[in-house]
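Example 3.2
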Amino acid sequence: MLYLLLSLSFFFALDQEKHFYYFMEWIYTFFLFHGVFLYYFILL
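Structure, written as tokens:
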């Protein structure tokens, strides 16, 4: 997972201004998706 994040950050650093927004959006959706699952399992 850490290697994936490093490779993604290196790729997005090549064209920072355009890809940084997509990177932050990916992180946001990633944590939102896992947050929903964690919240669901905590309720169970």
